[in-house]
Amino acid sequence: MKFNYNLLVVFVLGVLFFTGCYYDNFTELHPSLASGQCDTSKVMSYSGDVVPILNNSCGTNNACHSASNTSGYDLTTYAGVKAVVQSYQLYSSITFDGSVPSMPLGSSSPIAKCSITKIKKWIDAGYPNN
Known about the structure:
mainly alpha, 0% strand
């Protein structure tokens, strides 16, 4: 009996097709956003609220705005984020107000409203390094 390589290739591709995809569950990844809840009643903190938003919205682990990237903005440190906040570019870029390039780059819409609200509340509190 002769081995049919075409059948093997189809089988392997079929297995890869059905097992190779992983669909993130939005509810599992962002329970507060999925439930429609946005808790901004607490004091927003740099490390607890702002850093996770930047890490998730500015490329994988903030890769688009790291010290090694040529974007000119290092958002991986408090000092870098503070500089962008003080120049009024952070809030303008995430709200798509047109005064600076909109971020995330290439996106047709701003980041989640809850995230924008948290960043705005942190900025209004004097952008503490907490």
